[in-house]
Amino acid sequence: MNYINIEELKGKHIHFIGIGGISMSGLAQILLRQGCIVTGSDVKASTLTRKLSDSGATVYIGHKADNVKGADLVVYTAAIHNDNPELNEANGLGIPTVDRATFLGQIMKNYGKGIAVAGTHGKTTTTSIISIILQNAGLDPTVLVGGELDAIGGNVRVGESQYFVTEACEYVESFLKFYPYIAVILNIERDHLDYFKDLDDIYNAFLSFAKLTPDDGYVVGCIDDPLVEQLLSDMPDKAISYGIDKPAHWTADDIAFDKKGFPSFNIYCDGLNMGRFSLSIPGRHNIYNALASVAVADLCGIDIEMIKESLRLYKGAHRRFEVKGRLEEGVTVIDDYAHHPTEIKATIQAALNYPHNHIWCVFQPHTYTRTRLLLDEFASAFYGIDHLIITDIYAAREVDDGSINSKDLALRINQAGQNAIYMEDFSSIERYILENCQPGDIIITMGAGDVYKIGDDLLEHSMIIGKVI
């Protein structure tokens, strides 16, 4: 499509089909701040749609052809099918339409310093940390993040500078529609195999993404990841590496964890000790996220002491090892978005360093394709969990074809030597936990679907072992 000048959108009517999505809602907020008339629709109301309504958008629940009338442009998500009544109506009326990724890329093109964070894991945390560092340094970035971040008041921040920070998802190669000045690649693993043919196909997509950077741009990548290391070697003129186990431009060593599992470590830049850094979020994996953020912040000319202080103050995004609250007897409820085997292992390692008696985990698999194709990896991902409950697969964009279910996953986990039980409905899971958990336990709800509701219900009812708090 032709280049979109965001200034020319002022006063225009933009309609979003699927406005409740984390990225779509953020784009809608950006346009509201630019003086656009924003409408949108989604299948159900949510915190994000209510926030949009409070900000001045008109949000319709349900998709109807009449919703798009009067629009100058219609933006739709990849989840919207060709038979959607609003999309069909827009096409019939001759209203221009554009998919979310293309539109985001066009908005990004208006900024001179686009920072796009890609990778199979860690995008939300790294995007959030980079955003906080830039904000604290007074660089006034515009931010679009795939989670709720208290420090920016949600999932979007609208700034006035040339800096634009966003997550870059590889699914359906949507990140190839972006315009990054700095491309960050955290890791490359098998995922989204409902779209990609194999790991080589995934690698080639990431390489194409890295090549989108201009001649004076940069590719920041984790050298400890074999495929990212290969990618950096394929374009050495732009490469800025970071890692823990291998020599890199930015490295961390002398790692220690406090009693909450929060790490501290020394950071080196090309062998020069930059000082002792500490995080207020748990886990070794977050050291990698921090190193990526430090490398980007340095490219933006930010003072190392400002970077160090911003890392220390960062408290995390919602659904990323988020401590939701405590029940009676000190039972802690934690929620985490992990839905890939590598992410699960990282979250469990963080939990093992967190004060606990026993670790409970309620895992909700995300999509049938991922569960089926990564079944063996899931089966070996839960070591360290004392009590594991598997609930039904969250279908997301897919339709159940009967080829896999959560009972299959629980069986395979048990065959791998880990004790797992399958439970279908959330209310039964809640009762089971309340009847069996003990003082000092931690309960982790884990997955990218709606499993977090279990923790919310436990805290709302404030009951444990039959007692009302």
Describe this structure in words.
- The protein is an alpha/beta fold.
- It has three domains: 11-100, Rossmann fold, CATH 3.40.50; 109-313, Mur-like, catalytic domain (UDP-N-acetylmuramoyl-L-alanine:D-glutamate ligase), CATH 3.40.1190; 322-468, Alpha-Beta Complex (Protein-Tyrosine Phosphatase, Chain A).
- It has helices spanning 22-33, 47-55, 85-93, 100-108, 123-136, 199-210, 226-234, 285-299, 304-313, 341-352, 368-373, 375-379, 406-415, 426-436, 452-461; strands at 13-17, 37-42, 58-61, 73-76, 97-99, 113-118, 142-149, 154-157, 163-167, 182-185, 218-222, 239-243, 250-257, 263-269, 272-278, 322-326, 332-336, 359-363, 387-390, 420-422, 442-446, 463-464, 467-468.
- Mean pLDDT is 94; it is low at 463-469.
- Its EC number is 6.3.2.8.
- Its main location: cytoplasm.
Can you name the CATH architecture of the largest domain?
Answer: 3-Layer(aba) Sandwich
Indicate the mean pLDDT.
94
SS element count, helices: 15
Cα separation of the termini: 58 Å
CATH topology of the largest domain: UDP-N-acetylmuramoyl-L-alanine:D-glutamate ligase
Share of β-strand residues: 15-25%
Report the helical percentage: 25-40%
Number of strands: 23
Classify the oligomer. Answer: single chain
What is the level 1 CATH name of the largest domain?
Answer: Alpha Beta
- Overall shape: it is globular
Global structural class: alpha/beta
CATH superfamily of the largest domain: Mur-like, catalytic domain
Please, how many domains? 3
Low-confidence stretches: 463-469
Strand order of the biggest β-sheet: 8-7-9-6-10-11-12-13-14-15
- Biggest sheet character: 10 strands, mixed
Rg result: 22 Å
Domain Mur ligase central: 117-297
Subcellular location: Cytoplasm
Domain Mur ligase N-terminal catalytic: 13-111
GO molecular function, one term: ATP binding
